[in-house]
Amino acid sequence: MQAVQVPGSAWLVDLPGDGSNRAVPAVADPYAHWPDVLVEAAQALDEVVMVGHSTGGMFMLSVPGLEAHLAGMALVSSAPHAGWQTTFARYAEEHPIPAVETAAARYAGHPDDESLRALTLAAAPWNFGEQALAEGRSLLAGLDYNHDAVAWSAAHFDDSYRRAGPRRTCLP
Description:
- The protein is mainly alpha-helical.
- The protein has one domain (21-156).
- The chain has seven helices and two strands.
- Strands 1-2 form a two-stranded parallel sheet.
- Helix 4 (98-109) runs antiparallel to helix 5 (113-122).
């Protein structure tokens, strides 16, 4: 993997309590502070460029007022609204993976971090081509999983989000 060498600092932001954010002091009902904390983070620094991958980018796009505090925004595999889910659901139905059905049933019956990890790993063929599948699964296996953040996102964001503000020109 290669990284761009630019001046500045990186501050990794995720949903409260998600990813590797679990070691921070506990905050009562951290999701009650969302999305205001994202604007607060942008206001705390100068010349902020936020980079969001997938849902992280979608969270950024959906926050009213965030753009006014950014020097730039980069999105990786993000969508401007939740409409992509219909197309993906149709694709998944047309390309079933038996291991996903088993893992989804296990997750539905016992939703926790480990059953979420198993479901994500089972679904890897929907996210990686055959040549990249082993490396993709290895990458996914090393990530931190947080069922609470996924459950919050599913209940409050995933099905209904839309980009806030005017549409901007994007690079291909």
